[in-house]
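Quarterly update from the structural biology core.
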Amino acid sequence: MYETLGINQGEEAVYRHVLTYGPIERDVIAQTTGNDEETTAAILAALASKGLVYGSDDDLIAASRPSVALRGRLAERQHAVIEAGARLDELDRIYNANDRHQVEAGPVERLVAAEQAKAAWNDIVTGAVKELWSFITDPYTVMADADSEAAVVAPHDHRTTCRMLIEEAVFANPVARKRLTLAHSSGCELRTIDRLPHKLLLDPDRMAMLPQGPPAGDYAGLPCLLVYWGTLLDAIKSMFLAEWARGVPVVSREGEPVAVHQPDRPTDEELRVLRLLIDGRSDNFIASEVKRSHRTVLRRIEVLHDKAGTVTRAQLGAHAVRVGWLR
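Predicted structure, tokenized:
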């Protein structure tokens, strides 16, 4: 943020110190910030040229009010962003006017080159303002360079609210664990789930990116789809929220995020009973099909009610569909 206002890291440290403790002597600033006198003098001169600090006759350094000193600079940056947006719109018009790009103006763009996919991924991550959602599936895919802001979905200084839904199998990958640890420690909300339909990266306000191929498809395998707006993007957001509701919050053990198995998910036998129950079969028919006594079947149904928090069989069926037990 401070670089946006034209203040580098060294200047930020000194300016914050003067804001907190000023008016303060020059030599004290040098001692407490860890800079030598020459470096401190150069930083103070740079801050003074920007109107952020000023010196008095007794060599005390004081800070100007930030909202006064920086408001004009912030307005310049905002104007520059508006100008850049206008130039970007102009470039898009030129792009769309060229039929040889073979891109139809619409809510979906098909990416067929690896560099296109990587650029789109980075654009979604770095351009997100409010929220950033993702499905992380096995096999784990690294779309960004290790040192870039998009290397993880939520680097430490990212401004978004981040949600990541992760297949349990992903946690076996050491590279994935390292990046998930960074995202988790940076405040990203992580949940784990047994299986997801496909990979997904989603800025709910702008666009979504997902593989075009089958469920086993991967960004690296191409082609990918970018979905920009309209009912398609709304449907993708609804799908994410439905899967998110099934996920279990990730816990941290020894500094690393760890997948937690869903404690309330039915066993295979309970799922067989549930499917037959939803099909409208009688208790006696279910007992015959699963080769259990009538009493055992009733116990299985009781356990299903406990796990779902339901009372009636209709409620149980609706819960099973909602949370994805029958997939």
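The domain at 268-323 is CATH 1.10.10.10 (Arc Repressor Mutant, subunit A).
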